[in-house]
Amino acid sequence: MAVLTTGFFSFQGCMFEASMRSPNMEPFKQQKVEDFYDIGEELGSGQFAIVKKCREKSTGLEYAAKFIKKRQSPASRRGVSREEIEREVSILRQVLHHNVITLHDVYENRTDVVLILELVSGGELFDFLAQKESLSEEEATSFIKQILDGVNYLHTKKIAHFDLKPENIMLLDKNIPIPHIKLIDFGLAHEIEDGVEFKNIFGTPEFVAPEIVNYEPLGLEADMW
């Protein structure tokens, strides 16, 4: 049985990052994203990514541009490795579901890979819950069903999200009676391969499954924790 752990391999005691582009990966557009999109206000940020609102010049349609800072050398810990970025893009290119965020396009420059994503402007479920303090039975039932529909779709494609939490569940429009749910942020998502044992320690401490903490083989069931 093969064992997959992280994006690194060892040789004579040294660690090397597997950063070469996958031969099956469709290349990212090597053009300035600003030539095709008007970049607007910042919507959010993480350790190595910034999300900004943008408008496609040719259509006038609005999207979210996720600028992911690339790791510049294998020895660096600043930025995201090529392997991790390609994995996220590969997964997003496979999915099409009304409860999962949609990838529109991908650009690359010297420092960043830019994902052009569906604009989800209703805010995080986390903030929605904090403001309301409690949900009606109808709201709770709808949210749970939508989340499970999205997760079930991912699992039918053998994709585990591995970072499901209220901050990664967004609302399309929070001002309607029953907001529509979108699962976002596939930075930790993996395709679970038959016969390949996958282990890793990652995720958000408050939400990780016990098998992640215990460094045990991981599967789709980790999302249900």
From TrEMBL:
Binding site residues for ATP: K70
Domain Protein kinase per the UniProt entry, residue ranges: 37-225
GO cellular component, one term: Golgi apparatus
A GO term for molecular function: identical protein binding
Signal peptide: none
GO biological process entries: anoikis; intracellular signal transduction; neutrophil migration; positive regulation of apoptotic process; positive regulation of eosinophil chemotaxis; positive regulation of neutrophil chemotaxis; regulation of intrinsic apoptotic signaling pathway
Alphabetical keyword list: ATP-binding, Kinase, Nucleotide-binding, Serine/threonine-protein kinase, Transferase
Family recorded in the similarity comment: Belongs to the protein kinase superfamily.
Protein name: Death associated protein kinase 2
